[in-house]
Amino acid sequence: MSNKRVAPWIAGSVGVVLIGLLVLLAVAKPSTDSASSPLLGKAAPAVRSTTTDGKTFDLARRKGSWVVLNFFNSTCVPCRNEHPRLLEFADAQKQSENPVELYTVVNDDSDAAVKAFFDTNGGDWPRVKDDDGAIAVAFGVAKVPETWVVDPNGFVRLRVIGELSRGFLQTRIDEMIALAEASS
Amino acid sequence: MTAVPLSSRVKSWPVWMLMGLIVVVLLTIGATRDNGPLTQSERIDAISQRLACPTCNGESVYVSRAAAAESIRNQVARDVSAGKLTDDEIIAAIASTFEARVLLVPRATGFDALVWVLPIAVAVCFVTALGFAFRRWRKNQGAVPSEDDVALVERLLADDPTDEENV
Q1: 3-state secondary structure of A106
Q2: pLDDT per residue as tens digits for the range B82-118
Q3: Which CATH architecture has domain B40-105?
Q4: Cα separation of B93 and A139, whole Å?
Q5: How far is CA A159 from CA A69, A106, A138, B42, B159, in A?
Q6: Long-range contacts: A13-22, Cβ < 8 Å, 24+?
Q7: CB distance A14–B125 less than 8 Å?
Q8: I need a labelling partner for B15 at 20 to 30 A (CA). Which of A2, A39, B1, B63 fits?
């Protein structure tokens, strides 16, 4: 085959590869702060720890209830900003027939600082210690705040990265409960 | 006895053969050398150096002092102490929750594989193009002029007034 015949094929192949790369870049999902996780729809990681008041916490033993894990640090501004929304959410659970269990997972913070924050700003739900970061690593949490929802069967259903907006958590959990009831 | 120029000696094929042999032997030794069993601490360090801190820019878990890196390092230490997983399995387990963000060395599967494949593909294309170019140049170099070409050149030389023989 002469060079004049080969050249268009080479140029065409390079062109096809370049167009393919452009298409890939165009359709690729952005990797920053999306709420996707390989854990969604799968069994929640094993989480065993203690609460700041010394009680044992085992996520596997919370089956039968919807569980919310909120990763928190008292010095993080979005964590502080979303706290009033968590207070509203916790208050709503007190009046609910099937209350959702809310837990704060303390991320890289001292018990004293967290206690001081809750004493000042309110909130009486349990605070789970994560001194060695095992819970954060198990859920793939790098930055706080992050909020995870685990269903009564122990499957991860929702991940919210960043500050919660007002009513978002309650709305999404109500939707998931309705969907679960409809399918059962 | 006349001294053989250095350039000629270097160009001679036995030297190149010897150099090739040395390279092959060294590569074989390097690839098969057994470093012996690593201590737990060395394993933790080696794995941490292959993981990126998810909240830092371009820092490994080994180097970073960020809280997330600290947590990952603790997890690596727990997994190594448990002694159930290989280094690759520990990295895969951590990467499965943090996704590819924590991999300093890209995977050889899926979209990440392009990082490995593209340079090789470009190199192959480049070498192929060079091969074509060299072949063409060689072909042109050894071209034999036709009788018409020879006649044309002779006629032009005969007519050329600047040619010394015709002045």
Answers
A1: strand
A2: 999 999 999 999 998 887 778 888 777 777 788 888 8
A3: Orthogonal Bundle (1.10)
A4: 11
A5: 10, 17, 13, 35, 90
A6: A14/B125, A17/B121, A21/B114
A7: yes
A8: B1
What distance, in Å, lies between the first and last C-alpha atoms of chain B?
48
Alpha-carbon torsion angle A153, A156, A158, A159, nearest 10: 150
When the candidates are 3.60.15.10, 3.40.1670.10, 3.40.30.10, 3.40.190.10, the CATH number that belongs to A48-183 is 3.40.30.10
The answer to whether B124 faces chain A, any CB pair under 8 Å, is no
How far is B148 from chain A, CA to nearest CA, in Å? 25
ipTM of the prediction: 0.72
Q: Is B70's CB within 8 Å of A39's CB? A: no
What residue type is A122 in one-letter code?
Answer: G
> What residues are paired with A70 via a beta bridge?
A104, A147
